[in-house]
Amino acid sequence: MEEVGFYGGYERMTAKPSPAPPVAAPMKPLVPTLPQTPSSDASDSSNDDIIKILRKAKSFSVLIRLLKTTQIINQINSQLITTKSGGLTILAPDDGAFSQLKAGFLNSLDDNQKIELLQFHVFPIYVSSSNFDSLTNPVRTLAGANPERLQLNVTAYGNSVNISTGVVNATITGIVYSDKQLAIYHVDKVLLPLDFFQPKAAPAQAPSLAKALAPKADKGESSSEEDEDQTTKHNSGGISLTAVQGTTLVSLAVALLAAATI
Fold first, then answer.
1. Which keywords does this Swiss-Prot/TrEMBL entry list (predicted)?
2. How many domains does the chain have?
3. What distance in Å separates the CA atoms of residue 72 and residue 50, rounded to the nearest whole number?
């Protein structure tokens, strides 16, 4: 609509501004941004020093100790530095999560199991907080991709990201650190793999033991055969002896008869 008026003898045309088109609402990610800890700012943290990041975030002393004693931290840092693309994602249980484990559980693990436990908490790819729904289950970890012993499934729904291992159901509660190559997420439980709780396959019988058992049966059979041979030999020996003795007696009788005749 236009308004027509007169001002100083001249006709003035005044146009109303047309309404602005509606602004499209931004797309809401399937998984909203998770809460961040004070250390999640990438500007003041070194992405090649995970220990420094965890120490600054606090409450990760048990995880830090395990990373150091197993020397897995060296592997992770090296892989992070040398990787060209893909990055890494670390699921970090805090001290409270480790305290929920059965007393003495960590001490019951050997060195290889501790290494497997830590590797089970690391994805060999970078996953942003809004992309957990794009993962394919079971998710591969640095521990391997055996779905029967090392399964790890991620479910992203609403405001939560849940993780299931077949033993533990955990939840990602926040972001410890995130940039374009490394993401560290805070999880409320230690992720225990099925591998720790499934019975191991019984070892095959040692060849030496089977070999040792076999001659016993053969020896028994050979002993029987030897006994039979010995019996035969004794019997044949007796017959021969009897025959020899019989011949001797006959010869002696003939000699005596000849002497008597003379």
1. Cell membrane, Glycoprotein, GPI-anchor, Lipoprotein, Membrane, Signal
2. 1
3. 11
CB contact at 8 A, 98 and 182 = no
Burial code (b: 16+ CB inside 10 Å, e: under 16) for 174-200 equals bbbbbeebbbbbbbbbbbbbbbbeeee
Among 136, 118, 257, 249, which residue's Cα sits nearest to residue 196? 118
Reported confidence tier of residue 237, pLDDT bands at 50, 70, 90: very low
Domain carrying residue 112: 38-196
User: Alpha-carbon distance 258 to 246, whole Å?
Assistant: 19
255: Cα separation from own chain's centroid: 100
Placement of tokens 């008869």 in the chain: 257
Query: Band of the pLDDT at 29, cuts 50, 70, 90?
Result: very low
pTM > 0.85: no
Query: CATH number for the domain including 76?
Result: 2.30.180.10
Looking at the domain assignment, is residue 165 inside a domain?
yes
